[in-house]
Amino acid sequence: MSMNSRQRVVAALNFQPVDRVPCDLAGMRSTGVSAFTYAALRQALGLEPRPTRVYDPRQMLALPHMDVLEALGCDVVVVEGDGLTNALEQPERWLPYDFNGRIPGAVVHDPAVYRVAPDGTIWMEDGASMPPEAQVFESEHAGQALILEGELPRPDLKQVRRDLERGQLTDGKIKALVETCRRVRAATDRAVFLWGPLCLGLCIHGHGGLAVFPVLCLEDPDFVHELHSLYLEYALKNARALVPEIKDCVDIVGIDADDWGNQQSLMASPATFRDLFLPYRRQHNAEIHRLAPGLKTFLHSCGALYDLLDLLVQTGTDVLNPVQWPAGGHTPEQWKAKVRGRMSLWGGGVNAQHTLPCGTLVEIRREVKKVVPILAADGGYVFANIHNLLAEVEPAKIIALYEAAETVA
């Protein structure tokens, strides 16, 4: 049985047999690779030098070229909501910028947003900074205020509605995005992953952050219902406008990045998810599936999610990422048993906090060959690291990771 990349991914997500486990690198911004290791990765793969395209400066992620995907056996390309994609060259989108001499690269935004201080620290306009020894941009408390006393701040619902109105997809944006998706479909046989315009916008660490919003969910659930109803209203409008137009040229759509887990447990209780998040996620998934039954919906949620898996299945979500099985004291076997045949898993191919950065090449290959067959059993699996490949992960380990995955039937 021989498959092309799209056939392989689609079959896996439909729990059907595949010729090998499908693989992803940078299908979305949590399965990517650091811009600080990208040039060395190209060299290690025997590929000619090309500018490192930094498309996510906060995480300092490189948008991989197609020859890297080919060399690593990856089966997915990305299209973002503004039409940026790695399936097409799009030279007009990129402007040269070298991050104070640290990366021979290019960016998709005006380099004037950066200011280099005398000590070499690079500052963004919003106050985020990257010191010379850092490899991502940082902000205090990750940009979430640490509020320990006083009345909890809450979003102004009138302002939320205005913001959602401004974020609605216009006819012009839809036309341009559909044209890009169709060009991508014609240019590659890889699965097409659309990230951005169909996200619902619910987030346990939104609206003030983890020091605020989970508490607000407990103190004023009626307000949170009103807030989430607003988000659903506008997300459904976007879905009804866009999904019928892209359903024949896109395979997977991102529906949110909503990190419910930490290293040991959930950020909020399953009851909070069941009451304040599940109904809205279920309606959102159901509408996308009504409009395009073959389109797969993808939720990114980090951390120790094991106790939430049954509820996530009930939302109708097709794919869960990043499968952080080392968090919370559970195993790949337990994660797979919870969702087998009901929801696909995307990621989790190796322990990214221990084995990948600290292990040898032999240990990395051994763990991949142990974990991946477990997660891929009975279908419903796409291989990737647990979250992004960071700057300290040397190219030899990245190559070993994908070589090991490609040998798993």
Structural account:
The chain is an alpha/beta fold. The chain has one domain (5-26, 64-86, 152-406): Alpha-Beta Barrel (TIM Barrel), CATH 3.20.20. The chain contains 14 helices and 15 strands. Strands 4-10-11-12-13-14-15 form a seven-stranded parallel sheet. Strands 1-3-2-6-5 form a five-stranded mixed sheet, covered by helices on one side. The longest helix has 26 residues, at 221-246. The protein is globular, with a radius of gyration of 21 Å. It starts with a helix and ends with a helix.
The CATH architecture name reads Alpha-Beta Barrel
| Strand coverage percent | 5-15%
By CATH reckoning, the class would read Alpha Beta
- CATH topology label: TIM Barrel
The rounded distance between the terminal residues' Cα atoms is: 11 Å
Question: How many independent structural domains?
Answer: 1
Shape: globular
Query: Secondary-structure element order, as H and E?
Result: HEHEEHEEEEEEHHEHHEHHEHEHEHHEH
Average pLDDT number: 96
Query: How would you write the strand order of the largest sheet?
Result: 4-10-11-12-13-14-15
By DSSP (H or I, 4+ residues per run), the number of helices equals 14
Question: Which structural class fits the helix and strand makeup?
Answer: alpha/beta
Largest sheet: 7 strands, parallel
